[in-house]
Design goal:
Layout (H helix, E strand, L loop, with lengths): L3 E8 L3 H12 L4 E5 L6 H6 L1 H19 L15 H26 L2 E4 L1 E6 L2 E6 L2 E12 L3 E3 L12 E2 L1 H4 L8 E5 L3 H12 L3 E5 L11 H11 L4 E4 L3 E8 L2 E7 L5 E6 L1 E4 L3 E3 L32 E3 L10 H15 L13 E3 L4 E6 L2 H6 L5 E6 L4 H6 L5 E6 L6 E8 L2 H13 L4 H5 L10 H12 L6
Parallel strand pairs: 1-2, 1-6, 2-3, 6-17, 8-15, 9-10, 9-15, 10-11
Antiparallel strand pairs: 4-5, 5-6, 7-16, 12-13, 13-14, 18-19, 19-22, 20-21, 21-22
Helix pairs in contact: 1-4, 1-8, 3-4, 3-6
The structure holds flavin-adenine dinucleotide (FAD) and 1,4-dihydronicotinamide adenine dinucleotide.
Length: 468
């Protein structure tokens, strides 16, 4: 029997692949999306963005109840956690969200194929679904196979004591002590879930600060806030080994003074980055090249070394973010359809969903210094915001970096309440090359957290802030 034929086959149904599949169908292509698992949505929906945010929201409610309600004049009886229910709610959220993608595929006439895809050549793949093999042919392919957690060679994941984010989202009980290796986004978000529920969280970080790629002031401020939620931080500390005995894990490390130190806990959550996932893809057979770290190499239009095969998302590297993967997916299929797509990597926001929330877009102060570029700073603390005081959420600030000659906004960095939503205004401003004065002269509703962005833009423009 001859292979079923498509205009486009997308490999991987994470946020990059499923969005690309739907956009391709809108553009009139006959499209199929192959996914290893029946459940669509990839890392993001199943073991990433959505489950972590579900647990962050649940644990934040608990934290509010025990830490903040009394201050607001709300009395409760003894508040306790039903952790099984918390995990069950997270599973239900995943299930509903994943089912939504099946619905969208049907609505847009995207064919779903379940199984692991491997290239035969640049126009043919074999899909293996639990041993049952089928072949498919396409004019174009889009590789969106994502990433997997990086493993430390001397402490391999065992799923019980040495865990990745996947197991940390499905623990059976709240740990007493959690060792987090890597003070990046996963460590601080999942550490926050358990810190709020009473776990002692010890973060062991190799660098001299947490969230190293972001503007340095953000990490410093977040570190101070998280110390109030059962976190302790061991910076400039290099993990060297690990032992498991009597149900406990001991992580051995070398601190900044070169001394041997150790940390004992119920689990060690290793979150030191993620690696591109191309296992079993047989990319070479199609002429697709990888770089020395295993990421798929692409050109400016996201084409691999084989020009009918595009690649997007975590598997090509750069910022490993769901919305970056989505934008690239749309870009790639619009390019296939000979449209003129748009992609601006400088305006992709990064958000860390701790509390206070951290959000950033554009250049950080350290980026601008490294580039030798002059900049001016406007910085407004939330403690001067009426809305923040009314909400008892005064930790943090909003900082605008602007060009001293043209006033163009070069970067916006914020930490505080609801920054995950507030960053959208800064993205819009930067995308349309607004000046700090443009933001400053727009009317912002009062009292809102967004006034902080107006105030610090006033500061950056002409030191004209009203409320500081
Ligand atoms: P993925 O989502 O990894 O999807 C790839 C899919 O391809 C998977 O379903 C995989 O099974 C399938 N696949 C792989 N190989 C094959 C093959 N050969 N054949 C068939 N199918 C295959 N990002 C954010 O922007 N915001 C967040 O809040 C956020 N939170 C996160 C929290 C955690 C705990 C983690 C781990 C990640 C988080 N991320 C977040 C990152 C985000 O999940 C990823 O950047 C995003 O999922 C990448 O999308 P993708 O489409 O490139 O790949
Ligand atoms: P990360 O790159 O954010 O952080 C890894 C941290 O580990 C870094 O601070 C690094 O210096 C440190 N590190 C590396 N090796 C180490 C070692 N041997 N010992 C101690 N520390 C070490 O990676 P993370 O947290 O694993 O997340 C992976 C990806 O998932 C990130 O790229 C992120 O973008 C994405 N993600 C995004 C989220 C969001 O957008 N809110 C949430 C969670 C994940």
């Amino acid at each position: 029997m001859s292979a079923e034929e498509f205009d486009l086959i997308v490999i991987g149904a994470g946020p990059g692949g499923y969005v690309a599949g739907i956009r391709a169908a809108q553009l009139g292509m006959k499209v199929a999306v192959v996914n290893k698992y029946d459940k669509l949505g990839g890392t993001c929906l199943n073991v990433g963005c959505i489950p972590s945010k579900a647990l962050l929201d649940s644990s934040e409610h608990y934290h509010q109840a025990i830490e903040k309600f009394a201050l607001h004049g709300i009395k409760t009886g003894k508040v306790s956690v039903d952790f099984k229910q918390m995990i069950q709610r997270k599973r239900d959220v995943i299930e509903n969200t994943v089912a939504g993608i099946d619905y969208l595929f049907k609505k847009n006439k995207v064919t779903k194929i379940v199984g692991h895809a491997s290239f035969v050549d640049k126009n043919n793949i074999i899909v293996d679904n639990k041993g049952e093999k089928s072949t498919y042919k396409a004019t174009n392919f889009l590789i969106a196979t994502g990433s997997k957690p990086t493993e430390l060679p001397f402490m391999k994941y065992d799923g019980k004591h040495i865990i990745s984010s996947t197991e940390a989202l499905e623990l059976e009980k709240i740990p007493k002590e959690l060792i987090v290796i890597g003070g990046g986004v996963i460590g601080l978000e999942l550490g926050s879930v358990y810190g709020r529920l009473g776990t002692k969280v010890s973060v062991v970080e190799f660098m001299d600060r947490i969230l190293p790629p972001m503007d340095a002031e953000l990490g410093k401020t977040l570190q101070r806030s998280l110390k109030k939620s059962n976190f302790e931080f061991h910076l400039k500390t290099k993990v060297t080994g690990c032992k498991i005995s009597r149900g406990k894990v001991t992580v051995e490390a070398e601190n900044k003074k070169g001394e041997a130190v150790s940390f004992k806990g119920d689990h060690a959550l290793v979150c030191v980055g993620r690696r591109p996932y191309t296992d079993g893809l047989n990319a070479g057979a199609a002429g697709v090249a990888l770089d020395e770290r295993g990421f798929i190499k692409v050109n400016d239009t996201l084409q691999t070394a084989a020009d009918n095969i595009y690649a997007i998302g975590d598997v090509i590297g750069g910022m490993m973010l769901a919305h970056k993967a989505e934008e690239e997916g749309v870009f790639a299929v619009e390019h296939m359809a000979e449209e003129i797509p748009h992609m601006n990597y400088n305006t992709i926001p990064g958000v860390v969903y701790t509390w206070p929330e951290v959000a950033s877009v554009g250049k950080s102060e350290q980026d601008l210094k490294a580039d030798g570029k002059e900049y001016k700073v406007g910085k407004f603390p939330f403690k001067a915001s009426g809305r923040a005081r009314a909400s008892e959420e005064t930790d943090g600030f909003v900082k605008v970096l602007a060009d001293p000659a043209t006033d163009e906004v070069l970067g916006v960095h914020m930490i505080g309440p609801r920054c995950s939503d507030m960053i959208a205004e800064a993205v819009l401003a930067m995308e349309y090359k607004a000046s700090a004065e443009d933001i400053a002269t727009i009317c912002h509703a009062h009292p809102t957290f967004t006034e902080a962005l107006k105030e610090d833009s006033l500061m950056a423009t002409a030191d004209r802030a009203i409320h500081v």
